[in-house]
Design brief:
binds iron/sulfur cluster; binds FE2/S2 (inorganic) cluster; 7 strands; 5-stranded mixed sheet; alpha+beta; single chain; 30% helix
């Protein structure tokens, strides 16, 4: 695979053809925030917090860095006024769902996002899909999935699979940017495990 030259924030960078703007930036030590990206998983482009401005043949566009491929002579700007504004609004929306998430709070400080701008809908999940995709793509178990659609969309553990697989795995927990996956799991576990009172005396 050949190498091409692109410019990110005024810095000339060599990037392998076929890589994304996010990967090229990372390899050059330029930080772009991400919430749904994991290099081990297929590109997803769900949260859009990695939005950057690209300029090619004199035309400027806003694109999602974790899925946008590099191309010859591409100019990338990671912190324009528009980019920062998009990230600020996205963070305000995410904070309405997960106001206590340390990662979101940290980014909110950087982008001046107001955690109280939108009415709270504390689902604790920002639908980044990391847990769902990790379980499907890496573990090949599909123990957690999305249910419902639109504003009612949320994640749910599949009780029959979770009861068998999740107790010994839990690898999706630390991936969650809101740290609420754990609560969801504990809830499901409570539903699927026999309560202490139901355990026969001989097995205690
Ligand atoms: S529970 Fe966490 S990891 Fe899973 S989709 Fe929601 S925010 Fe992402
Ligand atoms: S990190 Fe790129 S869209 Fe989520």
């Amino acid at each position: 695979m050949g190498e091409i030259t692109i410019t990110i924030d005024g810095k000339e960078i060599k990037a392998a053809e076929g890589t994304t703007v996010l990967e090229a930036a990372k390899s050059a030590g330029i930080s772009i925030p991400t919430l749904c990206y994991d290099g081990r998983l297929e590109p997803y482009g769900g949260c859009r917090i990695c939005t950057v401005e690209v300029e090619t043949r004199g035309r400027k566009n806003l694109v999602v860095a974790c899925v946008y491929p590099v191309e010859k002579n591409l100019i990338v700007r990671t912190r324009t006024e528009k980019v920062d504004k998009i990230r600020k609004i996205l963070l305000e929306l995410f904070l309405a769902h997960a106001p206590d998430s340390p990662i979101l709070q940290e980014l909110a400080k950087e982008y001046g996002a107001d955690k109280d701008r939108f009415e709270k809908e504390t689902s604790f999940c920002i639908l980044c899909g990391l847990c769902v995709r990790y379980c499907a793509e890496i573990k090949k178990k599909n123990g957690v999935g999305f249910i419902d659609r639109g504003t009612r969309r949320e994640i749910s553990f599949i009780p029959e699979i979770a009861a068998k697989e999740c107790g010994k795995c839990k690898e999706c927990f630390p991936l969650c940017p809101t740290e609420a996956l754990q609560a969801a799991y504990v809830f499901t576990e409570a539903l699927t495990s026999p309560s202490p009172a139901a355990v026969p005396e001989s097995e205690k």
